[in-house]
Design a protein that fits this description.
Elements: H1 3-21, E1 46-47, H2 60-63, E2 67-68, H3 79-85, E3 90-98, E4 108-116, E5 124-128, H4 137-148, H5 152-156, E6 157-163, H6 179-192
Parallel strand pairs: 5-6
Antiparallel strand pairs: 1-2, 3-4, 4-6
């Protein structure tokens, strides 16, 4: 098996684990991202591949998605992102995931992905996640793109970030608390300590 295929499979597993861990609701159980989600030779390239191993019941359509990579301007949700996402070397796409894996035919979410393609002999993908909850991995990848440009890491690896469900350009957006509720919660924490 080629190093590129191994890298893509590791990316798929990493994205699946990280997106699942970033969910705001405990009823959301995980995410599948198709193998080859970051492959492709041009911004408009369709990428995809076939899942290896057994695909869980009801999830075939999620594993078989073909992603279309485009420019990132429409993915920006803040003024800082608008400037960072204007970089024409960045590609963005979306992957659909079930909101509830116990009901794969139910409502879905759209998870935003951002990548900077390797500039040299690509050997794999590097997934970045700023942690959180509520932090944008797409924004982190866009900001790191200028730092990695021209480095051995940037030459050999695609840099990939994603916005967890409910965050940034992913849809639907989730706002667990209003600003007033968040302020009240912080006040309660300050008083109790």
């Amino acid at each position: 098996m080629s190093q590129a295929r191994v890298g893509r499979r590791l990316l798929v597993l990493g994205v699946a684990a990280l997106i699942g861990a970033a969910a705001c609701s405990s009823s959301v159980v995980g995410v599948a991202v198709p193998v080859g989600a970051v492959a492709g030779s041009s911004p408009a390239a369709r990428s995809g591949g076939s899942a290896t191993g057994a695909v869980p019941a009801g999830l075939t359509s999620f594993y078989a998605q073909k992603l279309i990579w485009t420019g990132c301007a429409d993915y920006a949700t803040t003024d800082d992102e608008k400037a960072a996402y204007a970089n024409d070397k960045l590609d963005c796409s979306r992957v659909s995931v079930p909101l509830d894996y116990t009901n794969p035919t139910g409502p879905t979410a759209s998870v935003a992905l951002l990548r900077l393609r390797a500039t040299g002999a690509r050997i794999g993908s590097m997934l970045v996640n700023p942690g959180g909850p509520g932090a944008s991995g797409a924004s982190l990848a866009a900001n790191l793109s200028t730092t990695l440009a021209g480095t051995p890491l940037g030459q050999r690896f695609d840099l990939v970030g994603f916005d967890p469900r409910g965050v940034g350009a992913s849809r639907p957006a989730v706002d667990c608390l209003t600003d007033a509720e968040a302020d009240a919660e912080r006040e309660d924490l300050d008083v109790d300590t």
